[in-house]
Write a sequence for this structure.
C-alpha cells in the first residue's frame, strides 16, 4: 500500500495533476509511527494507554474527515485530514503483558496525533 | 420525586414495558426525555413521526442480520471477498442500510488470527447491522480489560486461544465499526445459508466466542 | 501538595487498561424511554443539531460522579439537555416547566378515567 501511495503521487505528477492540500495521505500502510504524547484536556479520542507508543500504519482510512476532537464541540465541517488504522503490539503497551508476542491492538488515529519514526 | 427509576442496569427487568406509564409513574429521566422531545417537536426541529420511524429502524436491526451476513460469507466466496474489502457495501447488497456515516470493516478469524472488538472510550458497535450492544460490552470490566488482557477476557467467556494464534484487539474510536467473521464450524458442509445463520451469535460477531457447533449450543 | 491534574487530563470514560473485576454478563431489554432516547439521538444527528461526537463530549463533561452513577441513557438525556441549552435551542426554564406539566398529566391520568386530560 505504501507503494500504491507513491504510485498515486507519481501518476498525478506524470499527468500534470496537482493534488489538493491534505488530499493525499501523509502516512502509508507499513509506515512506522509514534502516537504523540500530548495531554489535551476536554474531548479526546486517543486513550491514555496509547500515548507515546510506537506502532505501524495498518491501513489508511478514506475519505478525509473532520478532527473528532473538534467535532465534539460542534464542528461539522472545516479542515479534513486522514485517519489511520494503527497497530501497536500489546507487549509495547503493557510491560507485564500476558499473551503471545504477536498479539496486537488496532485503533484509528487522526493524522495530527502521529509522527513518523525512521 | 417518588418512583425514581434508579435501576442499576445489572439486573433483569421482569415486568413488561408495553407502554409508558403502564406499570408505574415515569421516572425522572423518562420525564426529562419526554420534556426535551415534546419541546423540540413543538419548536418544529423534527416531527413525532421521525422519532417513531427511528424506533422502527432500531427495532429492525438485530443480531439475525449479522448472522445472515456471516452465513453468506461462509457459503459464497465471492461475497466474502467483497465483504472483507468493504463491509458496508457488502451489507448494503443484502439490504442492510447504514443510516449513519460509519464504515464497517469485517475481520476474518482464521486458524492463525483471532479478532476481538471493544470500545474502551464509549460503546461504539456496528448498530446498523447488529442492533444495540449488550450491557456488558458497555460496562467497565470488559472495556478496561479487553485491551490489556484479551486472553483472560476470552477465557472468561470460555474461549481459549492457543499461543500460536495471534489475538488482535480492535478499539473502535472513530468512524469505523467492526464485525468479526467467525470461523465456519466443522460439520457444516452442505448447510443452507439459513442453517448456517442459526449457528452465528452476537457474541461470536463481537469475537468473545466462536460460532456454535451444529450439534448444539456451546456453553 | 495534592496533584489534581489527572482529574482534568484523564476523562472519566478513558478506562482502557485500568484495573477492573470480572465481566458480569448483564443485559436488559430497553425501556420505552431508553429506546425513545436512542431514537432522539439519531434524529438529532440526522438534522445536524447534535452529532455523535458532541454527544460523547457531553457525556464526558458530566464528570466522574455522574458518569459513574447514572445509567447509559440517563447520561445521554442529561448531556443532550446541557448541549441544547448551550446552543440556545431550549432553556432550563422551558424544560423544567414542561416536566411539571408532564407530571401533572400523569397524576391526572392516574387518578382515574373521569380525570382524563
Amino acid at each position: 500500500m505504501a507503494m500504491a501511495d507513491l504510485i498515486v503521487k507519481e501518476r498525478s505528477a506524470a499527468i500534470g495533476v496537482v493534488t489538493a492540500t491534505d488530499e493525499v495521505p501523509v502516512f502509508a500502510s507499513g509506515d512506522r509511527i509514534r502516537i504523540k504524547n500530548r495531554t489535551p484536556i476536554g474531548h479526546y479520542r486517543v486513550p491514555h494507554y496509547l500515548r507515546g507508543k510506537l506502532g505501524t500504519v495498518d491501513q489508511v482510512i478514506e475519505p478525509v474527515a473532520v478532527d473528532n476532537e473538534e467535532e465534539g464541540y460542534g464542528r461539522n465541517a472545516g479542515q479534513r485530514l486522514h485517519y489511520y488504522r494503527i497497530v501497536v503490539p500489546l507487549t509495547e503497551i503493557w510491560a507485564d503483558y500476558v499473551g503471545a508476542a504477536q498479539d496486537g491492538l488496532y485503533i484509528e488515529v487522526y493524522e495530527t496525533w502521529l509522527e513518523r519514526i525512521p | 420525586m417518588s418512583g425514581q427509576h434508579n435501576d442499576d442496569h445489572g439486573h433483569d427487568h421482569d415486568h413488561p414495558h408495553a407502554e409508558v406509564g403502564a406499570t408505574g409513574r415515569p421516572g425522572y429521566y423518562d420525564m426529562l426525555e419526554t420534556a426535551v422531545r415534546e419541546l423540540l417537536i413543538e419548536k418544529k426541529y423534527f416531527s413525532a413521526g421521525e422519532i417513531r420511524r427511528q424506533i422502527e429502524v432500531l427495532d429492525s436491526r438485530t443480531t439475525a442480520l449479522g448472522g445472515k451476513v456471516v452465513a453468506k460469507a461462509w457459503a459464497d466466496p465471492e461475497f466474502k471477498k467483497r465483504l472483507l474489502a468493504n463491509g458496508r457495501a457488502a451489507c448494503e447488497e443484502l439490504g442492510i442500510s447504514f443510516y449513519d456515516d460509519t464504515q464497517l470493516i469485517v475481520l476474518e478469524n482464521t486458524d492463525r488470527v483471532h479478532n476481538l472488538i471493544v470500545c474502551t472510550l464509549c460503546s461504539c458497535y456496528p448498530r446498523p447491522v447488529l442492533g444495540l450492544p449488550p450491557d456488558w460490552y458497555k460496562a467497565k470490566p470488559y472495556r478496561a480489560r479487553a485491551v490489556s488482557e484479551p486472553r483472560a477476557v476470552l477465557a472468561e467467556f470460555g474461549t481459549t486461544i492457543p499461543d500460536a494464534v495471534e489475538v488482535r484487539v480492535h478499539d473502535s474510536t472513530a468512524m469505523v465499526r467492526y464485525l468479526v467473521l467467525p470461523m465456519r464450524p466443522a460439520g457444516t458442509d452442505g448447510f443452507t445459508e439459513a442453517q448456517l445463520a442459526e449457528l452465528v451469535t452476537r457474541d461470536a460477531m463481537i469475537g468473545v466466542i466462536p460460532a456454535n457447533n451444529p450439534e448444539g449450543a456451546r456453553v | 501538595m495534592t496533584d489534581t491534574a489527572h482529574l482534568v487530563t484523564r476523562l472519566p470514560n478513558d478506562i482502557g487498561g485500568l484495573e477492573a473485576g470480572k465481566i458480569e454478563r448483564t443485559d436488559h431489554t430497553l425501556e420505552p424511554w431508553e429506546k425513545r432516547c436512542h431514537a432522539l439521538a439519531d434524529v438529532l444527528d440526522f438534522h445536524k443539531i447534535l452529532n455523535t461526537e458532541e454527544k460523547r463530549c457531553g457525556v464526558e463533561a458530566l464528570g466522574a460522579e455522574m458518569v459513574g452513577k447514572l445509567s447509559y441513557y440517563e447520561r445521554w438525556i442529561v448531556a443532550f439537555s446541557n448541549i441544547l441549552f448551550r446552543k440556545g435551542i431550549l432553556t432550563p426554564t422551558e424544560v423544567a416547566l414542561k416536566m411539571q406539566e408532564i407530571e401533572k398529566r400523569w397524576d391526572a391520568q392516574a387518578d382515574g378515567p373521569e380525570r382524563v386530560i
Observations:
- Chain A touches chain B at residues 45-47, 49, 61, 65, 68, 83, 85, 87, 90, 93-94, 97-100, 102-110 (CB under 8 Å).
- Residues 21-116 of chain A form a domain with the SH3 type barrels. fold (CATH 2.30.30.50).
- The longest helix of chain A spans residues 2-15.
